[in-house]
Design goal:
This protein has helices spanning 2-35, 50-65, 67-71; strands at residues 77-81, 84-88, 100-105, 111-116. The chain is α+β, with helices and mostly antiparallel strands and 118 residues long.
Amino acid sequence: MPMKKSYILLMLAALVASTFAFADTAASRAFKESANTSGFQPKEGMVPDGATAISIAVAVWNPIYGEKEIASEKPYNATLKNELWTVTGSVPGGWVGGVATAVISKKDGRIIKVYHTK
């Protein structure tokens, strides 16, 4: 009986090892394929308009500042200068305070900077 248990454990170990080896090979192959591909680059950039820039900014702000805080800063504004979107929240009229700000690359969607004014 102990021989049978040893055999089963050995087979199970071999199966687990081969699974990890296959996963590593598949991941490695996918990485190599993506590294050799330029990917799709839209003519107007990954962030073509203010609405897209605002969506990205809100997605970045929410986990940092909280959904309630970010929702209170509506409406959001997006301006494009030198191929960078600057997205800001708003302070209601008569209120004093700062707003969330995000600077996003129009070309590739990189988040350049995120901060909250006071």
